[in-house]
Amino acid sequence: MLNINIDGIDIQVEENTTVLEAAHKVGIDIPTLCHDKYLSEFGGCRMCLVEIEGSRKLQTSCSTMVKDGMIVKTETDRLVKTRQNILKLLMMNHPKDCLTCSKVGNCRLQDLCYRYGVKNPEVLGKYGNYDIEVQNHEVDDSNPLIFRDQNKCILCGKCVRVCEEVQCTHTIDFKNRGFDSYISTAFDLPLSKENCRMCGQCISVCPTGALVNKQLKNTRPWEVEKVKTTCPFCGTGCQFNLVVKNGKVEGVEPCDGYVNQNSLCIKGRFHTDMIHSDERLTSPLIRKNGELVECSWDEAIGYVGNKLRDIKMEFGPNSIAGLSSARCTNEDNFVFQKMMRAAIGTNNVDHCART
């Protein structure tokens, strides 16, 4: 264990702990834009700079490891001024449409500007006597699931890292250098099923309105209720929050679950459109006179039971096979195989997730 002091608080931490992690252990909030605990350290936003006694330079707390006897300050006048200047530089080249932005109320950049008192800096693109260039990327609205506005991108690189390190897809990366840098696909192709898994992981980590889930584009944080539940699409057990507005499920957001650690696949993130689909079946169907007609559950279950009994009596139990689903609970699948083996008398039972 190493002994360090952060803002006058003496704490003990393990080796290979960053200053940022050590600060979080004692409830000290060091601001970040490019940090994510599930991704590699990037150190690009510079918002997490801290003062370390004995060093003239400011250090990035997300990538600086603690040393025994280290004395750290996280909110000095020098640091506040530095963070204000960083935010001003970002906002000079950022759209000023916060009132209508889909991320209003849930934007990390907006939160930090409020925290450090950065208000509408240089809205006319001037800094003193110098003209300031402004990014002018074309908004990509072609994707059916993800809305992309590169003009709101702050180049934190979180979308690039989550695509590379978590999804291992490598769909997007930095392109060009300096002021001309932006995030893009190979050959600037649109995001599509040809080059992307459509998992939406990039949406989750984006701190601004550069990447938005189209299902939630017209919701505001204060208008919705979030209900934590388990994804029903497979047996993994990923956790997410249902985003409910006026009693209707608009979409889902990942939560830091033990199983999925803030990750979701395309089905888990975007499947909720089926809830209100006009094509969704809401009652059992039985084919009568060549047509499927609605029936009650009692009638449907009785029909299946009678058919299974007739087949078993005529052709024997091994003429029947059962296939269970990974979308069911373990208990449901146990009861299903018990029914097949004990009630019907066959071992012809399989599971869709076995392979």
Q: Any idea of the CATH topology of the largest domain?
A: Alpha-Beta Plaits
CATH architecture annotation name of the largest domain: 2-Layer Sandwich
Report the order of strands and helices. EEHEEEHHEEEHEEHEEEEHEEHEHE
As a whole number of angstroms, the C-alpha radius of gyration is 27 Å
Structural class by sheet pairing and helices? alpha+beta
Please tag this protein with its features:
24% helix, 18 strands, elongated, alpha+beta, 355 residues, three-stranded antiparallel β-sheet, Ubiquitin-like (UB roll), 20% strand
Mind sketching the topology for me?
Layout: E1 2-6, E2 9-13, H1 19-25, E3 49-52, E4 59-60, E5 71-73, H2 77-92, H3 108-115, E6 126-127, E7 130-131, E8 146-148, H4 158-166, E9 172-175, E10 182-185, H5 201-205, E11 211-213, E12 225-230, E13 239-245, E14 248-254, H6 266-270, E15 285-288, E16 291-294, H7 297-315, E17 322-324, H8 330-344, E18 349-351
Parallel strand pairs: 1-5, 17-18
Antiparallel strand pairs: 1-2, 3-4, 3-5, 6-7, 8-11, 9-10, 12-13, 13-14, 15-16
Domain 4Fe-4S His(Cys)3-ligated-type: 78-117
InterPro entries: 2Fe-2S_ferredoxin-like_sf, 2Fe-2S_ferredoxin-type, 4Fe4S_Fe-S-bd, 4Fe4S_Fe_S_CS, Mopterin_OxRdtase, Mopterin_OxRdtase_4Fe-4S_dom, MopterinOxRdtase_cofactor_BS, NADH_UbQ_OxRdtase_ferredoxin
Pfam families: Fer2_4, Fer4_Nqo3, Molybdop_Fe4S4, Molybdopterin, NADH-G_4Fe-4S_3
